User: Fold this.
Amino acid sequence: AQETGRVVEFSCAIGDEMVDGKPYSQIVKIAKDYIDSVGGFEKLACWGLF
Assistant:
């Protein structure tokens, strides 16, 4: 969404193993890599919620 400027919506339910065709493990790795790149969870938390 940030790259295209278009709204992106996904949903998942308990027991699902994938979101939009991506396994949770891949999504978690992407999120972890991003959090690490901004200095860890504490630095990310300083931004607050959007």
